[in-house]
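Before the break, one more example. Copy the sequence into your notebook; we will annotate it together after we see the structure.
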Amino acid sequence: MREFRYRRRWILGGGVALAGVLLASLVHGTGREPRTVALVRGYFEAIAKHDVARALRTAKIDRPDGEEARFLAAGALGDWKVGGVTETSDSGYTGDAEVTVVLVGEHHRRYRTTVRLLKSRAGLRIAEPLATVRFGVTAMRYAEVGGIRVPLQVDPANKDRSVEYRLLPGLYRFYQGRQDVVRVAAGQTPVFPGDGGTVSGGVPVSPEFTVTPAGERAVSQAYNAFIDRCAKARGLPAAGCPFGPDPAGAIRTRDRDVFGFRKLTWRVLKYPAVAVLAQGSGLEIVDRERGTVELKGTGVVGGAGPRRAFTVPCETITDATYGTLGMDGTVSISVPRSGPRKDTCRDGALSAR
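Here is what the structure looks like once it is written out:
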């Protein structure tokens, strides 16, 4: 009888202990995560699902006005997953806290960032919900984030020739859309608030790109068309054209000089063979083999005698000429504001009659 009572007490005690363990486990398993973690998780999961409106509501912020909000759209957001959200510090007294977020991108690469939260009368909120990126002027005269491409509208008053945009935090692809002229290095770029900050002007977007064979042909064709437009001029060519005489008042040649020239016309004899180099602000055009244009006119040859008709071949010289790309991939030629640095007719053989 005594043994039976002992066994019953052991069973009851064990049952109570087991129930306590199960209850504690149940409470722990079904308990809510900290409000800080829940807020940040909800914010990043909304972004991962490309739900911009929900993300802005979660962060308790209004959509910014104007051009800077062009990429706060589902089409700009990249593809990634929330790998983990943990609270790393909590002041307790003020309610301020820091939460660490891990994003998992392509090839299972993990990116970590810290989100600071503030407690105010309006409740808990994310201190800095949006990031700032800065697009500078490159060979591509547009900005592109994800599947959205917009013209790069640089304010002339902006000395560093850049445009700032606001982005939701995440992993982005810049300049990864269809472009036949250049090839941009692939990959995801992490963009998080605080990486650039408002003091330094935001995270700079500086794409690494190379010129494709098709791009070299497109730039060469655009440059040839530019030479054709310059050759249509009557008189001295416009500033920036890749050929021209000495503007000081005489046409210098290797034989004789021509003074008081009139009725100048130009004709392309041979287009140049050029190389195209990827530079920070454009596609630099460099002569492999210079072209030739024929200059005709009338003037006083050798400084004496009657006015005579003359002909002289002149070279084309690129001289700091660049190609740029528009949103549709069209190549435009950008030229220096000043004229040629030297007389491109100086080495030509003059023919006069």
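Residues 35-211 form one domain. The chain has five helices and 22 strands. Try to locate both features in your own notes.
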